[in-house]
Amino acid sequence: MILEICANSYQSAMNAEKAGAHRIELCSELSVGGVTPSYGLLKKVMHSISIPVLVLIRPRSGDFSYSNAEFEIMKENILQCKALGCAGIVSGVLHANNTIDIKRTRELIELSKPMSFTYHRAFDEVSKPKESLLKLIEIGVDRLLSSGLQEKASDGIELLIELRKTAQNKLTILPGSGINLENCMLFKNAGFTEIHTSASREIKGNSHSYFGKTSQTVSDIQAIKNIIESIG
Q1: Which of 64, 73, 142, 149 could be stapled to 116 by a disulfide with Cβ–Cβ 3.0 to 4.6 Å?
Q2: Nearest-CA neighbor of 230 among 7, 19, 10, 18?
Q3: Residue 92 to residue 103: CA distance in whole angstroms
């Protein structure tokens, strides 16, 4: 079973490889659901680790319906990832009514080639998941990261199983959100071949800050090792 670690920093990426993770999704600012990492972070990670690096392409927090300028930024970031030799892109676009923007998503997929393309948890905002899944298959998505339209993937596992059956191996369903040592076997036993988690712990730092009290986290080596040992 493949373990993908959502790495929110250089240290998280290093910890993921050291612990034996199979690949990472590199992003920044997990507290807002993740945004595109800086070019400096991406370049340093690519020069430092050997496991596959997938990169989140999300220009800001909030919804997944983007202005023309934001969409151009997303495309430029994909080209940077391609130039650095990244393994894949993690992205997706919705219309304002939370249906999948097929035209723009297809454009991102085509631009990403030959890198793989994972449609991210924007999918968990749609109202017709099976219909939406078939559209993603049609435009060539390789992998779908989803919590089954629930806050935690363990609560959405029934829908995730239905989606996997609907996909018929035409794309990979990647369960993610709230997966940990206690529930990771739930997904292996249900027949999934990959799972996604940050396996993170809070870093205790200086609590006196003028810029908010959002906690800093890092992917934890021992937590990752424990999950890998559990899923075999």
Answers
A1: 142
A2: 19
A3: 11
- The Cα 82–Cα 109 span in angstroms is 12
Helical H segments across 113-216, by residue range: 129-138, 157-167, 184-189
Dihedral angle over CA of 17, 20, 26, 30, nearest 10: -110
Among positive and negative, which fits the CA dihedral 6, 82, 141, 35? Answer: positive
Tens digits of residue pLDDT in 51-93: 999 999 999 999 999 999 999 999 999 999 999 999 999 999 9
CA distance 108 to 200: 29
Domains and CATH numbers, the chain: 2-231 (3.20.20.380)
∠ Cα 163 122 214 (to 5°): 125
Spatial separation of the C-alpha atoms in residues 181 and 225, rounded to whole Å: 10
Mean pLDDT of the chain: 95
Both tokens of residue 75? 């495309």
Lookup: tokens for 108: 């991102």
Reading the block at residue 202, the tokens are: 């809070």
Does residue 88 contact residue 66 with C-beta atoms inside 8 Å? no
List, in order, residues 6 or more apart from 193 with CB less than 8 Å away. Answer: 1, 2, 172
Residue that has been written with the tokens 């596992």 in this structure: 157
Mean pLDDT of all residues in 81-106:
97
CA distance 84 to 217: 26
